[in-house]
């Protein structure tokens, strides 16, 4: 079972989903779990199947002291780059619930903000701390739902299965059909090191 960061504090865990995708938003979630809350099923969202992620999403959103989920769309990702988009999403997610948090823990090795709050970055934090893993689940499930919705508009990219990641089928569809309004034009969308011309 993953650890609580500090049972005496209201700790806000933060994580993102979709940084490496070719299409769709970068999504960040922030969540404050109740003090002394424990759930042995919560872990890094990448280690869970879709069914268990969905069950845990419902559990986390129902018991959380507070949570927020923010999407930064692909056109903003193209304009400011994916790392800055991740920071923007995380800052927006934190700002929605910061008043209820004593401390912020963020998955990864870097973060930047203009806001004044106490935080620390934790490398592989979604495999260590329950609140970061909970945030990873919220971000992943929310973003996956969006990609399934977009798949109805553009079924040939197979987003219902790949969620925007660069699978062989996804890249083959880009070669055949071109790009959609949800693709990140600044990314190398094909195996060849070429950028799609805007």
Q: What is shown here, in short?
A:
By secondary structure, the chain is an alpha/beta fold.
Q: What separation lies between the terminal Cα atoms?
A: 47 Å
The CATH superfamily label reads: Ribonuclease H-like superfamily/Ribonuclease H
Q: CATH first level: which class? A: Alpha Beta
Order of helices and strands: EEHEHHEEHHH
What fold name goes in the CATH topology slot?
Answer: Nucleotidyltransferase, domain 5
Q: What is the count of helical runs?
A: 6
* Oligomeric state of this protein: single chain
The average pLDDT is: 93
Can you put this structure into words, describing what you see?
The structure is a single chain. This protein has 198 residues and is α/β, with parallel strands linked by helices. 38% of the residues lie in helices and 15% in strands. The chain has a 5-stranded mixed sheet with strand order 3-2-1-4-5, sandwiched between helices. Helix 1 packs across helix 4 (130-153) and helix 2 (74-80) packs across helix 3 (82-97).
